[in-house]
Backbone:
């Protein structure tokens, strides 16, 4: 009898405890409505607590960069949290330099909203939109690089600066992910966005974009990026690219000659072999129309092709060194593999360019 009584008591106690824990959990994880304040009252929002800051921003159509779908593995979703973000998490630290930690920069996908939260977001990012677009054409430029041109449906116009990029939404087994691509179409080409995409084996974004055909629908957010072309027409522009680092160069050059037909611009483009050369005829034709455009392509591995190649050979930074006179006011934009960027940066520094005049995109 005593045994049965003990079992009943113990069972009852366990059930009460479980009920108590469930009730407590419900209270503890229910953060209710919280305030999400952006830029000190510029955009106050009411959001559901318990979600990540990134999810709350996206739900309110504020598309800060994110390439890993909120998994905390790309480090792109940085914003400043001035209050209410809780302590910094170990998952954020690998992506933040000491200065960012001191300035309260956080990974929005790792910050959970548990109370009213106050953030700062650059105004450029508040203008980022989600675009619906239709593929207009695809062009194979080399064995692994494709140009994809998309007509904008909604919104049907984009206001972008050369050097900016979009984040294309690509399907993956774990749901949609975003991948960043520089815009190659010129800023005045407002109803379309064109990309130049190298196929990366196993790459989710590039595999998707290489599979689309005219008529297919594509979504992307943008534009993103901090690059500003100098408005001073006497400042020469130097573009140095390699591989699919061509995309921002094409945008810069066509935008530049639409606004300043007399301006001097240098395009240095590094390829391994003639099989990697693209857009050369197009730029040579443009240079006939705008004689201050100088187009220099260099092959780094021209073996057996020298007879049929009338451009330069060697690494592209050597061409930059050979052609640019020192002491001229210039702004440079570099896009390509890290060793190329490092070598070109050194050459440009020796020619008198200040670090703040050199913008680069390493990939
Ligand atoms: S979205 Fe990739 S780290 Fe936050």
Residues:
């Amino acid at each position: 009898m005593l045994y049965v009584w003990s079992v009943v008591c113990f069972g009852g106690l366990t059930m009460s405890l479980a009920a108590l824990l469930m009730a407590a959990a419900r209270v503890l994880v229910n953060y209710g409505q919280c305030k999400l304040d952006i830029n000190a009252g510029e955009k106050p929002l009411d959001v559901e607590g318990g979600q990540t800051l990134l999810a709350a921003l996206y739900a309110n159509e504020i598309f800060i960069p994110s390439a890993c779908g909120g998994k905390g593995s790309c480090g792109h979703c940085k914003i400043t949290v001035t209050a209410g973000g809780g302590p910094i998490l170990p998952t954020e630290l690998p992506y933040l330099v000491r200065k960012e930690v001191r300035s309260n920069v956080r990974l929005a996908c790792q910050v959970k909203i548990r109370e009213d939260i106050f953030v700062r977001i650059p105004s450029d990012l508040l203008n980022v939109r989600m675009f619906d677009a239709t593929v207009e054409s695809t062009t194979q430029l080399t064995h692994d690089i494709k140009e994809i041109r998309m007509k904008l449906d909604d919104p049907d116009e984009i206001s972008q600066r050369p050097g900016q990029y979009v984040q294309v939404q690509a399907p993956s087994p774990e749901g949609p992910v975003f991948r960043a691509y520089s815009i190659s179409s010129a800023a005045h080409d407002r109803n379309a966005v064109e990309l130049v995409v190298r196929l990366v084996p196993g790459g989710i974004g590039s595999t998707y974009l290489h599979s689309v055909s005219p008529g297919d629908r594509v979504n992307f957010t943008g534009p993103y990026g901090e690059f500003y072309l100098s408005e001073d027409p006497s400042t020469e522009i130097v573009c140095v690219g390699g591989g699919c680092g061509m995309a921002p160069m094409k945008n810069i050059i066509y935008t530049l000659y639409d606004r300043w037909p007399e301006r001097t611009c240098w395009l240095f483009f590094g390829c391994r072999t003639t099989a990697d050369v693209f857009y050369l005829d197009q730029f040579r034709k443009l240079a006939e129309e705008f004689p201050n455009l100088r187009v220099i392509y260099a092959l780094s591995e021209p073996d057996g092709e020298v007879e049929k190649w009338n451009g330069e050979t060697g690494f592209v930074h050597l061409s930059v060194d050979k052609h640019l006179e020192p002491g001229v006011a210039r702004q440079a934009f570099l896009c390509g593999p890290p060793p190329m960027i490092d070598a070109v940066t050194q050459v440009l520094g020796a020619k008198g360019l200040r670090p703040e005049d050199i913008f680069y995109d390493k990939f």
